[in-house]
Every structure is written in structure tokens, then in C-alpha cells.
Amino acid sequence: MPTLPSLGLRSRRNGRGTRSAPRTPAPLSAYVVDCAIYVDGHRLEGEWNHDDAIEEVRRRGSGFVWIGLHEPDEEQINGIAETFGLHELAVEDAVHAHQRPKLERYDDTLFMVLKTVRYVENETLTATSEIVETGELMVFVGRDFVITVRHGKHAGLAEVRTQLEADPEQLALGPSAVLHGIADHVVDTYLEVTEAIQDDIDEIEAEVFEPRTKIDAEQIYLMKREAMELRRAVLPLTKPLQRLSEGYLPMVADEVRSYFRNVEDHLAKVSEQVNSFDELLTTLVDATLAKITLQQNTDMRKISAWVAIISTPTMIAGIYGMNFKVMPELDLKFGYPMTLLVMLISCIVLFKIFRRNKWL
């Protein structure tokens, strides 16, 4: 198996051809969130690095290592990749992220990618608002190790580790039990996010169909965009979970497969809800556009009515402004007030007509 370049210091030349100071990479410990050994479901005391941990497990002939990493670079993950025999393609995916949810097998190692999501509350929505924040979580599962690599600030696994350590019987099932715990945790967050988005959509729906309310169509388009972001995280995970629950992968303990079926059922529920979001938001967009069109028609009727009212005195004033000698009422003492009165009465009559017909 090809190995990654060895970890070391690299000097670079600047634009003038002189050698710049060597770049010192951050120590591996800066990326390691936790490294622990589990034997019979219980965590061994002490602090371990990845070399000593796997050596201890293989010396005992039982247990496994669980290493958690947060956004490591290629140089920093190199030592772990060599120690555990991780495939270079999987390591590259884990470092650079931006992957779709998937499950791949490299010899005796499983590599799984999951999308993590978090609901972001916004007091006011704008075109740049983000409702669903996504991250990525990669999991390497071997016979005696689990390595998690996460990208994003919201995808912490401390809660999962604590829950599993509180259940030694489950943790004793091995690395696949950890994979199940992670997948179950991720899908549970999907459920929480979909419920929050459902509440937002319900509020928008009530506002759209409430009489005499103005709704901005951009808010619905924003919700539709975020729902699509959630859909891209949820739907591709269906096939990986099916493979984990159907028994084609020897790295997954038989006792754990039924748990994956439960996670698959939860994911199916989320998928149905996410698909319903798209249909509902499309309906709300159509309703909003129809409401906007109706409002525009109402506004145009009001404008037309006021134009008709204003045009009447304008027309009379225009006729009397042509300065002909023979004009009605020019020689009368009260001709000017009578003309103004005719203008006022005409405007009042037109106003009442338009008001009765609900144009005003």
C-alpha cells in the first residue's frame, strides 16, 4: 500500500530567491481530541498516544483504540495513517473533506463519511442567512481501532463517548458499536433539525394564508435552499446504513446489525419529512406569488381609481384654460365658484362609485 510523505519540516523560497524560515507544523496533539483504549467495554486509565495505544491493545489481544481528531492536515495525520494502515485515498478524503455521505471498504478497514447538521436560529432572515449549518464526520473502523475525523465546530462526539462509556456492555461489542453510536447520534440531530425547520415552515404557512399579511417570497426561497442543503446531507446516507444492517461487512458484529436497522428506520423518517419540505415549500411559493399578484392587481385598481378622480377636474380646468371668448359661465358673477363646485362634486361621485365597487 502506498504511504503518505513522511512528516518533516519544509523550507521554501520567497520571490527573491532567498530561503525563508522553515514552516513548523503544529504537533499532532493539537489535532487529537481524545485517545483511549477500551477493554471489555471499560476505558483503561492513563494517557496514550496512538502508537502506544495500538501496541497495548495488540499485546493484550483484546479491546480496541478510539482516537478522535479535529480537522487535521495531511502532515499531521500521516503518522496515524502509517500506524493503522489507512488507505491513502481515504486519508485524502478525511483531510480535505467536502465529501458526500458514503461507505467504502479498504481491505479490512471501513471508511464512512457522514454529514453533520446544526440548526441556526435567526431573529431576521436575509438572503445571506444560514439556517442549516453543515459539517463532516469521517470514521475509520478496523478490527481493533476506531478513528474519527471531524470537520466543523458543531460535530463534537464527547456526548457519544460519554454515553458509550456509561454502557460497557454495548461498548464491549467492539469498534462497530462505536460506529453505530456515532451514526445514531448524527441521525438524531437530523431529527432535531427537521423538527426546528418544520416549526419555521408552519409559521411561514400561517403567515402566507392569513388575510391582509405581506410575506416576502425571498424568505420561502431561503427556506427551500436550506431544505435542499439538509436533503443533500440526509438522502445519500440511506445506502450506507443499508449495507451496515444487511450483513455483508464482516467488520460489523452481528449483535450490532439490528441497531443499525433502528438507525435506518429513523433516517427513513427524516427522509420522508425532508421530501415533504420540498413539496410544501413549493406550494407556499405558488401561494405567495398568487397573493403578491392579487395585491398588485389591487394596487393597480387603486391607482386607476385615483387617476380617474384626478383627471376629471384636470379635464375641466384644461377646457377652461383654452381661452376662447365664448365659453359657458364666463360672464357670470359666480362662474368660477360654480366650476370649482362641479369639479368637487364630480370627484366625490367618482370616489363613492369606486369605493362601492371596492376599488378604494
From TrEMBL:
CDD domains: MtCorA-like (cd12830). The keyword Magnesium applies. Keywords: Cell membrane, Ion transport, Magnesium, Membrane, Transmembrane, Transmembrane helix, Transport. It is found in: Cell membrane; Membrane. Residues 1-25 are annotated as: Disordered. The keyword Lipoprotein does not apply. Its main location: membrane. Pfam families: CorA. The chain crosses the membrane at residues 303-322, 334-354. InterPro entries: CorA_cytoplasmic_dom, CorA_TM1_TM2, Mg/Co-transport_prot_CorA, MgTranspt_CorA/ZnTranspt_ZntB. It is a multi-pass membrane protein. Belongs to the CorA metal ion transporter (MIT) (TC 1.A.35) family. Mediates influx of magnesium ions. This is Magnesium transport protein CorA. It comes from Saccharopolyspora rosea. The lineage of its organism: Bacteria, Bacillati, Actinomycetota, Actinomycetes, Pseudonocardiales.
